[in-house]
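User: My collaborator sent over this chain with a note saying "see what the structure looks like." That's all I know about it. Can you take a look?
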Amino acid sequence: MDLIEGLTKFNLTKQEATLYVQLLRAGTLTGYEAAKQTGISRSNTYTALAGLVEKGAAYVLEEGKVTRYTPVEPEEFCANKIRRLGEIKQDILQQLPTYNTTADGYITIKGEQEIVDKLRNTVAQAKERIYVSGNSRVLELLREELSQAVAKGLKVVVIGEKSFHLQGAICYSTSKQTEQIRLIADSRTVLTGDLEDAKDSSCLYSCKRNLVDLFKEALKNEIELIKLTER
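Assistant: Without extra context I'll predict from the sequence alone. Here is the result:
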C-alpha cells in the first residue's frame, strides 16, 4: 500500500499525510518551511498543520513569535488511533440493536479484502475445530488466526502445499495451483470461493447444514486421496 494512502486510513487527508511525512523527515518545521518543501499552498499548509495537531499527529512548538510544528512518533500516533477505535467500537456495540447472526441462506462475499476479513473472523470465532484448504499464499493470510486457534486448543486441519507448515496443526500436503479457498468451522459454517480476481473475487458463506456436510465430505475425500498418494 502507498504510504500516503495508508496514512489516510488513519483519518488524515492526503495533504495532512504529506505534511506528516515531511515533518518526520525534518523534525520541526514552520508553516512557511512546510509549504516550501512540499509545494502545498501556504493557506492549505496552515489548515493541514492545524488538522494534524487536532488529530493527534503533531505538536505545536512555541519559539517566540515563530510557531513550529513537530510530529508525534508514528508508533504512538497509530497506537492512539487504534486504541480510540477500540473504545468507539465498544460504545457502538453497546448501542446497536441485537440481531440473529445465523446465516439462514447463502451469502455472497465480494472483494479479496472482504473475503480475507470473513475468513479471519470465522477462524477467530471458531470454538472447536477448523478445516481449511488453500495454497500457501492464501494460508499465509490466515496464519496468525490459525496459530491462535491452535494455541486455544482447537483442532486445526490444513490442506495445502508443502511450503506451508503450522506447528500444532494437522497438515496434509498437496499441489494447490489456484487461489481457491475452502473453510469449515465447527461443522457449522462453510466459506468457499477463490481470490484470483482481487477486487472481483467472490466467495459463498453459509450455515446451511446440507452445504456444510457436502464440503466436509469433499475435504474428507481429498484427505483420503492425499493419504493414498503418499502410500
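A starting point for your reply to your collaborator: Residues 134 and 181 are 5 Å apart (CA to CA).
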